[in-house]
Design a protein that fits this description.
The model is unreliable at 1-29, 34-67 and 102-106 (pLDDT under 50). This protein has helices spanning 5-11, 77-92, 118-130, 140-151, 172-223, 266-277, 282-295, 303-321, 331-335, 340-343, 352-366, 372-381, and strands at residues 31-35, 44-45, 69-74, 232-237, 245-248, 253-257. Helix content is 47%, strand content 7%. The protein has a six-stranded mixed beta sheet, with helices on both faces.
Length: 383
């Protein structure tokens, strides 16, 4: 499924302009930036939407701007359709669609789970043959497709027939599959999926406003790498693969499932910052690898990832315990928050030894009782 580079270059030039006709299609992307302030309350700001965008307005208080962008949330039509077809195709191919939790997207409703329309069946068949067996993150073509569809969320089509700047550069057969499925998806599922996505964003946005910047700065300090200055794009979709969320880099792009039960409540807030931490992880990965080479031992494949889960989970747990995360009617639940990795038994699936090392040697670093280099060396020495 290669993207033609010349087409992508042409398609991405001058994409700010669009026709008024887009609005009539009710593609419904939501776009707003979560801003955080270090010394005063933080609120969301609405950037000027592109022509045809149906960005939902926020209330007057939320419209106050701030100097530091944290996340930019989207619920885009084409990206949701892409992931929904991916899930439908994997179900049809009997491929596991979720690990550690069950998907609750619309296809689990027997009244909505199938459509016999030729256009829909053709799209599912295309995804079964060409997409379902591909990995959303580790297949570079899938990453390029994900990023490109995110860019085109307000476009009425992907071929550029209506608006030249909407020429996607995707493979012709993929464009045909998505465009044939689009009217059916829009009429049967999109409004429900978009509502769920927006509800998920509404649930996490207040938490990001409360402690977004301090948490981002703490994570940057732990990993010894600055948080990026521009907002991190977060695309909220109804289904985001078997793990419920994934992140590609250069640029940092988080895709997270609103329907995945693992991403509900404070866990969804934690997973946002865990995913964002992937962009901060290079110093940790390099330090682990270097110390392993010095000790002439194999570099453990997932130690750095377990460390990321442990770190974000601990910081969110502390914030909840200290009362920094205020959810109406959920103070008690927040104060007793169990981090994501514990909740989903990640440490009982081959990470037991990692947990032991992190508790013994990484936790003192998070507590300020040792430094980065000594903590990494102690963790690696314990392998």
């Amino acid at each position: 499924m290669p993207l033609r580079e010349s087409q992508i270059r042409r398609a991405t030039k001058g994409r700010g302009g669009a026709s008024h006709a887009i609005a009539a299609l009710s593609l419904g992307p939501i776009l707003f930036v979560i801003w955080a302030l270090a010394t005063q309350p933080a609120f969301a700001q609405i950037p000027a939407p592109r022509q045809g965008s149906s960005t939902r307005p926020l209330d007057a208080q939320e419209a106050i701007s701030g100097p530091r962008p944290i996340f930019e949330f989207h619920s885009g039509f084409w990206l949701n359709l892409h992931h929904f077809l991916y899930e439908e195709a994997r179900i049809a191919e009997h491929i596991q669609t979720s690990q550690g939790g069950s998907s609750k997207s619309a296809n689990t409703d027997p009244k909505k789970s199938s459509d016999t329309s030729p256009g829909w069946q053709a799209a599912v068949d295309y995804y079964r043959k060409n997409v379902a067996h591909r990995d959303l993150l580790f297949d570079q073509n899938m990453v390029l497709i994900n990023n490109r569809l995110a860019d085109l969320e307000t476009c009425p089509d992907l071929s550029g027939r209506t608006i030249t700047s909407c020429t996607s550069g995707l493979q012709t057969n993929m464009i045909a599959a998505l465009e044939s499925a689009a009217p059916i998806y829009r009429s049967r599922w999109w409004s429900d999926h978009d509502r769920k996505n927006r509800d998920w964003i509404d649930g996490d946005a207040p938490l990001v406003r409360q402690i977004g910047l301090p948490l981002a700065e703490d994570l940057s300090s732990v990993y010894q790498k600055p948080w990026q200055r521009e907002p991190i794009r977060v695309d909220v979709v109804i289904y985001a693969g078997p793990f419920g969320a994934y992140t590609s880099l250069d640029p940092t792009h988080i895709t997270v499932a609103s329907s995945d039960p693992r991403n509900e409540g404070l866990a969804g807030f934690e997973i946002l910052f865990h995913e964002a931490s992937h962009a901060l992880a290079v110093p940790v990965q390099d330090a682990i690898a270097e110390d392993c080479r010095l000790r002439d031992i194999p570099i453990p494949r997932d130690l750095w990832h377990a460390l990321l889960f442990y770190t974000t989970g601990e910081m969110v747990r502390r914030a909840a315990a200290e009362g920094k995360l205020q959810l109406p009617g959920a103070e008690t639940k927040a104060a007793s928050y169990t981090p994501y990795a514990y909740r989903n038994n990640l440490y009982s699936r081959g990470w037991e030894d990692y947990l032991r090392l992190l508790e013994a040697y990484w936790q003192p670093y998070l507590d300020g009782r040792t430094d980065f280099e000594h903590a990494i060396r102690a963790v690696v020495a314990g392998l």
